[in-house]
Amino acid sequence: TIPPVGAVRASAEWEEIDALIVDWVSFPVILKDIVRYAQDETDVYIVCTDSSTVINYLTLTAIPLTRVHYILDPFNTIWCMDYGPWNIYSDDVDSLALIDWIYNRPRPKDDTVNSSIERFTGLPMYQTTVSPSNLIHTGGNFMTDGFGTGFSSKLILDENPTKTEPQIDTIMNRFMGINRYIKMDKLPYDVIHHIDMHMKLLDEETILMGEYPAGIADGPQIEANLQYVLANFNSVYGTPYK
Fold first, then answer.
1. Euclidean distance between CA atoms 161 and 172, whole angstroms
2. What is the pLDDT of residues 99-120, one digit of tens each?
3. 113, 83 Cβ separation under 8 angstroms
4. Which of 137, 128, 117, 136 is nearest to 174 (CA)?
5. Scanning 28, 141, 189, 234, which has its CA 20 to 30 A from the CA of 71?
6. Which of 89, 71, 67 is nearest to 80 (CA)?
């Protein structure tokens, strides 16, 4: 629960990975294809309560098991993008460690999965769970360019009412190396306010943004958020975002 010593860097989603994590519950038809094709690139860690059931299903659907590993652990939901660990490096690309926030949902079993991943991998894990570094957050509402820029909706402010925005920024900097934290207004019609529902960083200079017909639903706020980013921030290379 003490921040890392020295500078760290949160990795971008498009960087090379050692493993992909999925939680085996619901949507097995989709999960099996994720497991099938992810093995072309990396190992797959399946969090499950019964590995025999998973193995039987994958075997019956002709999914290879050569790069599949099983982490037996209780959990509540499939949404490990939201409650799973984030990755940081010290010395840019040297020592890998995990980051664990307080999950922003009342699902206590989901919030303990990262401790099981820590034990399984043997990687060190830093947790923003103890004051003054306690931080409630969710993976679907965070993305980073791998060079210290982070993006979230202002949900991060609402879910940490005891913290000022500078205090939140300090926690993200000390634990994840985020030195520029861009926060956008929440969408009025969206119910979860996760930015991954409507935008994605494709690389350090390119933003993929959802688009509605003009004047419909969340379209105006998405456009306003996009224009806010374009008008006030450049990429890490000093170029306008594409």
1. 16
2. 999 999 999 999 999 999 999 9
3. yes
4. 128
5. 141
6. 71
Q: Give the global pTM.
A: 0.95
Q: How far apart are CA 54 and CA 80, in angstroms?
A: 17
Structure tokens at 22: 């999925």
Task: Render pLDDT for 37-96 as a digit per residue (tens, 0 to 9).
Answer: 999 999 999 999 999 999 999 999 999 999 999 999 999 999 999 999 999 999 888 899
Residue type, 155: L
